[in-house]
């Protein structure tokens, strides 16, 4: 038997649907008040904003397509797709960021000297001993306030104001960062929209040279400026979890810890970012938005990367390129040595750096 619904209920239902459909447009049309703060003041606030306590929910989207190579861990998926992020931030040494999917989540919990990762799908909890100064990027690095603060601390920037936007229910001041020397970087500009009092970046867009849109975007959709409770940044493995303890979580961290070579103080005309006497196995060169990282590889690891990037052809030539709108790279073998070079520099800079490494092989570092 058909059920007759009174006409007023249909009208009410249609009205509610219409309101819901129009809601995103209405929110986007909310009047925005332009904060009266200079570009220099905003930049200074963003640079120290990692001291501000907050919690929120957001999303990071990348358009940097990398081959799905096992040695790169979750990096290809992380920077070439969309990642939902939930974060509780008490400070740079006390935070939790969860990367959420429909089926499970991947969490990073930092509480003082301890760093835990949690993979709910595999039920694996990993304790990273002593932290890792050099490692592959992870989802926690892409949450908008943390990403914005890190990029804003780059040297040699030209800064200008951009129109404000309404984000996470707040008026966010716009800021554009450009490299002082655009000829040596693939970064064209970075746009930030910032909560003006705290300096927290609510939206970050990184644009590569010649790209039609942002190569990397991170945005906060919800923001709470009250300090999250300390319990949010503590982690105790569930009773059914498999617990692992590691000191080198990926190929970059392993190379930094175990590589036998002492990389040079300058490469391709770029200065090393750490002290010249640094004994670390991995080095990053350049200033500001010009960055080139050099990772010495074991030949077996280099072989896996070469095969994953370009198949057997790369194995024969001993070399393979990585190319995206923002990140350029090269995996290369030369005799007993192999390197991964990658960063926000053109391929010509990478070629020069690789030629220098081949011409003057780095000496062995002290034990």
Automatic annotation (TrEMBL):
| Domain of life of the organism encoding this protein | Bacteria
Q: From the Swiss-Prot or TrEMBL record, give the protein name.
A: MucB/RseB N-terminal domain-containing protein
């Amino acid at each position: 038997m058909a059920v007759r619904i009174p006409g007023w209920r249909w009208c009410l239902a249609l009205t509610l649907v219409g309101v819901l459909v129009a809601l995103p447009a209405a929110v986007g049309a909310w009047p925005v008040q332009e904060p009266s703060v200079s570009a220099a003041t905003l930049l200074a606030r963003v640079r120290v904003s990692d001291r501000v306590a907050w919690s929120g929910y957001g999303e990071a989207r990348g358009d940097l397509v990398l081959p799905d190579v096992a040695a790169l861990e979750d990096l290809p998926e992380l920077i070439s797709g969309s990642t939902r992020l939930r974060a509780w931030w008490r400070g740079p040494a006390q935070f939790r960021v969860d990367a959420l999917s429909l089926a499970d989540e991947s969490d990073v919990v930092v509480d003082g000297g301890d760093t835990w990762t949690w993979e709910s799908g595999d039920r694996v909890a990993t304790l990273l001993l002593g932290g890792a100064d050099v490692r592959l990027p992870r989802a926690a690095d892409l949450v908008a306030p943390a990403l914005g603060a890190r990029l804003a601390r780059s040297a040699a920037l030209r800064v200008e104001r951009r129109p404000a936007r309404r984000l996470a229910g707040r008026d966010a001041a716009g800021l554009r960062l450009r490299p002082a020397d655009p000829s040596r970087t693939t970064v064209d500009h970075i746009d930030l929209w910032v909560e003006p009092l705290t300096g927290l970046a609510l939206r970050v867009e990184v644009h590569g040279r010649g790209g039609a849109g942002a190569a990397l975007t991170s945005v906060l959709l919800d923001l709470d400026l009250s300090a999250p409770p300390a319990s949010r940044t503590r982690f105790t493995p569930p009773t059914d979890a498999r617990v692992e303890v590691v000191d080198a979580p990926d190929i970059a961290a392993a190379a930094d810890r175990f590589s036998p070579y002492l990389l040079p103080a300058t490469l391709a005309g770029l200065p090393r970012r750490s002290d010249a006497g640094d004994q670390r196995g991995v080095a990053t060169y350049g200033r500001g938005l010009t960055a080139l990282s050099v990772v010495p590889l074991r030949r077996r690891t280099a072989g896996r990367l070469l095969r994953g990037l370009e198949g057997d052809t790369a194995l024969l030539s001993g070399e393979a390129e990585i190319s995206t709108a923002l990140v350029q790279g090269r995996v290369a073998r030369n005799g007993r040595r192999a390197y991964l070079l990658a960063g926000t520099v053109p391929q010509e800079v990478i070629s020069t750096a690789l030629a220098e490494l081949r011409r003057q092989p780095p000496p062995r570092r002290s034990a």
